[in-house]
C-alpha cells in the first residue's frame, strides 16, 4: 500500500500523500481502510486516532477543559472556545451580501439569511406553523402543551417560557435595563426601547391601508382605524 522513495518518504498509493514517519503513515492509512481501532466504551463509536476518542469522551463525561478567561464559560473543544472568543473581541467576519449586517459566526449569518429568503424549515407537527429558527419552534410548542412551569416566587404567576418570567420579574424589581442613548430614558423591555427610538428617528412603520397615513406605534394606528369604521345601527 505504500512506496519507499529515495528520501525515505512513505507515499500512500491511494492519494499520493507522503510521510517521513511510519507511525504517521499508518495512522493515515486508516482513512482509506475504514479501520477504526479506538472504540468508545459508552456508545461504541470508533475512531482511528486516540486523540479523537479522548475529545469524544467529553460528551459523556461532561468535561469542559477549555475555559474563556473573560467570562469563565467553558467548552469541551478548543475550536468551540475559539468561536466563542469572537463575541468578546467583537470580530464579525461573516457579512450579509443583502443588508451588510455582519456576524461573528457562520451559522449566525446562515440563520439571518432566512430573513431575506423567507425560508422557514422548522415546522410544528401539530398546527403546521413554520419558523426560521429551531428555538422559536421549541418556544411555540409550549402553546400546545399549555404547560406553565416557570413560576414567579413573589406573586406565583406562571409562564410557559423562562424568558417571559424574566421580563415579568422586572415589575417587582423596578429594573429598567434598556436605556435610550439619545435621551437616557429607560425601559424594562427592549421592545419598549425600540418603539421609543422611533420618536427620535421619525420612522413610521405602521401604515393605514385605507388612507396611507403612517404611525410610529401600532396602538396609534389601531386608534386611527376607528375613523374609517362605519357604524351601522
TrEMBL record:
Biological-process GO terms, alphabetical: regulation of gene expression
InterPro entries in the record: Zinc_finger, Znf_C2H2_sf, Znf_C2H2_type
Domain of life: Eukaryota
Database matches in PROSITE patterns: ZINC_FINGER_C2H2_1 (PS00028), ZINC_FINGER_C2H2_2 (PS50157)
Transmembrane segment boundaries: none
Alphabetical list of SUPFAM superfamilies matching this protein: beta-beta-alpha zinc fingers
Domain C2H2-type: 10-37, 38-65, 66-93, 94-121, 122-149, 150-177, 178-205, 206-233
UniProt subcellular location: Nucleus
Keyword Zinc-finger: yes
A GO MF label: DNA binding
UniProt keyword Nucleus, yes or no: yes
GO cellular component entries: nucleus
Keyword vocabulary terms for this entry: DNA-binding, Metal-binding, Nucleus, Repeat, Transcription, Transcription regulation, Zinc, Zinc-finger
PANTHER family, A to Z: GASTRULA ZINC FINGER PROTEIN XLCGF49.1-LIKE-RELATED, PR DOMAIN ZINC FINGER PROTEIN
Membership in a protein family: Belongs to the krueppel C2H2-type zinc-finger protein family.
Protein name stated in the entry: Zinc finger protein 235
Originating species: Stegodyphus mimosarum
Amino acid at each position: 500500500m505504500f512506496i519507499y522513495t529515495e528520501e525515505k518518504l512513505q507515499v500512500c498509493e491511494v492519494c499520493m500523500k507522503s510521510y517521513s514517519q511510519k507511525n504517521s503513515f499508518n495512522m493515515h492509512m486508516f482513512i482509506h481502510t475504514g479501520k477504526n481501532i479506538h472504540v468508545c466504551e459508552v456508545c461504541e463509536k470508533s475512531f482511528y486516532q486516540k486523540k479523537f476518542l479522548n475529545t469524544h469522551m467529553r460528551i459523556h463525561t461532561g468535561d469542559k477543559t477549555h475555559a474563556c478567561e473573560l467570562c469563565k464559560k467553558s467548552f469541551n473543544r478548543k475550536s468551540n472556545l475559539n468561536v466563542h472568543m469572537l463575541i468578546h473581541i467583537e470580530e464579525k467576519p461573516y457579512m450579509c451580501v443583502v443588508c451588510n449586517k455582519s456576524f461573528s459566526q457562520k451559522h449566525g449569518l446562515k440563520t439571518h439569511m432566512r430573513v431575506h429568503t423567507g425560508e422557514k424549515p422548522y415546522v410544528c407537527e401539530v398546527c403546521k406553523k413554520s419558523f426560521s429558527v429551531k428555538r422559536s419552534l421549541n418556544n411555540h410548542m409550549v402553546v400546545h402543551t399549555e404547560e406553565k412551569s416557570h413560576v414567579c416566587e413573589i406573586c406565583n404567576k406562571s409562564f410557559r417560557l423562562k424568558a417571559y418570567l424574566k421580563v415579568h420579574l422586572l415589575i417587582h424589581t423596578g429594573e429598567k435595563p434598556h436605556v435610550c442613548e439619545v435621551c437616557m430614558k429607560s425601559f424594562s423591555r427592549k421592545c419598549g426601547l425600540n418603539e421609543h427610538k422611533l420618536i427620535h428617528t421619525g420612522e413610521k412603520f405602521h401604515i393605514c391601508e385605507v388612507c396611507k397615513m403612517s404611525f410610529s406605534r401600532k396602538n396609534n394606528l389601531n386608534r386611527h382605524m376607528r375613523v374609517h369604521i362605519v357604524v351601522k345601527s
